[in-house]
Amino acid sequence: MKSKKKFLPENVIELMFGVGASVVIIGALLKITHADLGPITGNLMLSVGLVTEAIIFAIAGIQGYLTGDSSVEDKGLQTIEAETQNLQSAVDQTVSGLTALNNNLSMAAKATSALAVPDDISENMTNYSSNLSDASSKLSDINKLYDSLNTTLSEVNASTESMNIPDGLGEELTKMKATINELNAKYAAMLEGMNK
Length: 196
What we know:
Order of helices and strands: HHHHH
Oligomer: single chain
């Protein structure tokens, strides 16, 4: 609500209150002390001061009534309106979030309903297990082959120790033996892993 124009500014009314109060205080002092300021007596000052204060109170009351100053009410209403808007915004965001969540759940439900487990999954698992078993068997055969090769190389190495081997050939045989031992260990680890 828009307040009406005041017929007396606030600072004028405050000045009137201050002057009137001063006259009342001086009048009360003169009355209590039974003193006079020339022709001005305590009774006269007190009477003038009280009448002045009564007139000032009347003017202030009339101005408040006529102007209908509702700035305090307006501030309260503005605060309530702002809080209401904030609450409405929070509710809107919550509703929007719940709608998005509902849409996501619906899409997830549709996606999971579209997933189908193949009818032949059991057969495929059996084939996979069979192939795994075959691979394990083949690795075992390869492992036996490398064991045999390792044994043969050991025998060759033992028999060649007494022979006069040209320079460099013995080192090559040793490297070859070490490589075969490494391969043998790797295939043994693979076989063990397949059997678990």
